[in-house]
Fold this sequence. Notes:
By secondary structure, this protein is mostly helical. The protein has a single domain, classed as Na+/H+ antiporter like fold (Up-down Bundle). It is 79% helix and 1% strand. The chain has helices spanning 3-17, 22-25, 27-44, 48-53, 62-76, 91-116, 121-131, 139-146, 150-178, 185-213, 216-244, 247-252, 255-281, 286-297, 301-312, 317-345; strands at 56-57, 60-61. It has a two-stranded antiparallel ribbon with strand order 1-2. A hairpin with a 2-residue loop joins strand 1 (56-57) and strand 2 (60-61). Helix 7 (121-131) runs antiparallel to helix 15 (301-312), helix 10 (185-213) packs antiparallel against helix 11 and helix 13 packs parallel to helix 16 (317-345). The protein is globular and about 55 Å long. Residues 1-18 have low confidence and may be disordered.
Amino acid sequence: MSVSDTEEIAITHEEQSKDLGFFEKYLTLWVALCILIGILLSIYVPGISQAINSVTIGQISIPIGICLFLMMYPAMLNLQVSELKKLGKNPKPIILTIISNWLIAPFIGLLMARIFLQGYEQLIVAIILLSSSPCTAMVLVWGWMAKGNQEQNVVNTSLNTITIIFGYAPMVAFLTGIQNIPVDWILLLVSAFVFIGLPLLTGIISKRLLISAKDEDWFNKTYRPIVGKISIVALLTTLVVLFSMNGEVLIQNPDLLLLVSIPLLLGFLIVVGYNVLMTKLFRLKYREAVITVIIGSSSHFEIAIATAIAMYGIGSFAALGTTMGLFWEVPVMLSIVYLGKFLRKRGFWKS
């Protein structure tokens, strides 16, 4: 048995043993509960928004800024620069994913927003923020569940972490410019640094220090799971605050959540269909194809939420719109996992 065969067996065994945690598995339910709790707080504790907004730096409240950082930091621990050396090993699925993330998904998002959200400028921006942010975190879990090529998954998420630093702000500015929506370039760049660059820098430094002090096994099996759970708690806390500050608006305009969900879901459907078709046309094997579809169809909702809050405030329609991206992301990604397994049984991709 060769070394590569041994590695393949080890990867397969890890995939079989990996599953969604309790919080991740029911994340859509927790989001729905946070929406309800936030709305109830806005009705019965109306002073909560003023209290949160009383401690701010610029347009970001310090409590929310801390939560947003804790949301982003665990995702940045996925960066493995050494894995990027493997890009030339099997570049076809990587290239297809990059094309989907940066050329297809953003423009599909803009098209859906223009069709369904005319007159709702901030909701259009929310769709742009979501569609311009390729995922770097939870796709690792979806890839495990689908039993895809985890080496490709790590390479792709590492590459996404790098490209999003340089590509996110320019893409958002370009798409909002097409729609003639004025965006503060400086604020957008500052948001990209604070919510992408700073967590990434902290992640790189802390990873090196902790591995030196402990070891890599402790870092991966103890530290990362802990900060991952903290990230989810921070995300849910942010959502409670988000909806507590928008409860009155939602009660008066309940149709807004449904309105922004239509372009989100249609955009997901189109991009997923495109990726499935491309992986078939380029004759990818199942393990590479399913990872390409998953990463090429996902969004980095944490970055989108953080940027929306920085640009428009926590009580804005833009922040609410990006939150609905989170709400639909989990069921959509789970559906892709099951779709991939179904297509595999039908022999859609090469075995």
